[in-house]
Amino acid sequence: MRTITYSQAIYETMREEMARDPNVILIGEDVGAFGGVWGVSGDLVKLFGEDRVRDTPISETAIIGAGLGAAMMGLRPIVEIMFADFLPVAGDQIVNQLAKARYMSGGKARVPVTVRVTTGAPGSAAAQHSQSAEGWYMNVPGLKIAVPATPADAKGLLRTAIRGEDPVLFFEHKMLYATKGEVPDDPDFAVPFGQAAVRREGADVTVIAIGGMLPKALAAAEMLAGEGISAEVVDPRTLVPLDKDTIIASVRKTGRVVIVHEAHKRLGPGAEIAAMIAEEAIGYLDGPIVRVAARNVPLPYSPELENFVLPGVNDIVEKARDLVRGRL
User: Fold this and answer.
1) Of 38, 149, 186, 287, which one has the greatest count of Cβ atoms within 10 A?
2) CATH says 2-183 is which class?
3) pTM higher than 0.85, yes or no?
């Protein structure tokens, strides 16, 4: 095991997979000489050359389309989209082409495209550069959606995505890049899709924390423990496929559930998880399903207003406490 940052885990995985397989390429805005706007691609262009690490025009439609075409011709593209806010610019390429090519070809077209995209609010980036888009694409069959929250999962899930045969939207929260964690020192380390992780055992309430909200959920669980409330924290790791079994097992044990995500509350990923629990595990519940999420307004630039709109540790603590104590 080694302790590295989330950003380093992603860089290393791309470097290792490009060294292992000459068909793995990287394309996107400023991924080459600049090293990526977030610094994640580093020196990959020096290591593998401009044929395999290609800077693109500022056109999300062209970037996704090029990745799709390259995949259908036998390559394994890693496509970087700088901000999740601009995925809708490439909406047709993602929804009608990338997600459907394999299905509409009767399985003949392979589409191993990994779309790396930053998500979440980095702090005062305002309404067009702070959104969490994970839930937008859960409604589209044919796409897999990964939301790694730790360096180990960033590495393991990215390797699974690159070696897979389906298009993956790989959401990297901007505020996680500098976080550190232990990662197995194994060039083949991979994390299967559809396997959630229980990050903290508990007995009184289940807290399902998505992506960048995991550190806040763990901090909230520690605060709740000081009040005598035992919170179990579950990290889904992937939204599609979703590990229903782990979630339901936790709900069965605690009888209460709080779902936490940074996306807006209305029709965010928590809505689908809540619906699944209501359909398949409602008999285990001793209270309502609670969601803690961003308020349904555009993300403000002002730091004070941004903090008011985004869910925080205290919000999780308050909702979990009220749920356990029967005040909801």
Assistant:
1) 149
2) alpha beta
3) yes
> Using one digit for the tens of pLDDT, what is the confidence trace for 26-81?
999 999 999 999 999 999 999 999 999 999 999 999 999 999 999 999 999 999 99
- The domain defined by 197-324 carries CATH number 1.10.3210.10: no
CATH 3.40.50.970 residue ranges for the chain: 2-183
The one catalytic residue among 129, 173, 261, 264: 129
Structure tokens at 39: 């610094």
Are 243 and 208 a contacting pair, CB within 8 Å? no
Look at the chain and count its residues: 328
- Alpha-carbon distance of 154 to 173, in angstroms, equals 10
Contacts of 170 (CB under 8 A, 6+ apart): 114, 115, 116, 117, 146, 148, 157, 158, 161
Pairing of strands 53-55, 2-5: unpaired
Nearest by Cα to 306 from 177, 118, 175, 179: 175
Domain with CATH 3.40.50.920 in the chain: 197-324
DSSP string, 124-178: S--TTS----GGGGTTSTT-EEE---SHHHHHHHHHHHHHSSS-EEEEEEGGGTT
Our answer to whether residue 264 is catalytic in this structure is no
Burial state string for 20-59 with b = 16 or more CB within 10 A and e = fewer than 16 = eeebbbbbbbbbbeebbebebbbebbeebeeebbbebeee
Query: Using CA atoms, how far apart are residues 225 and 115, in angstroms rounded to an integer?
Result: 38
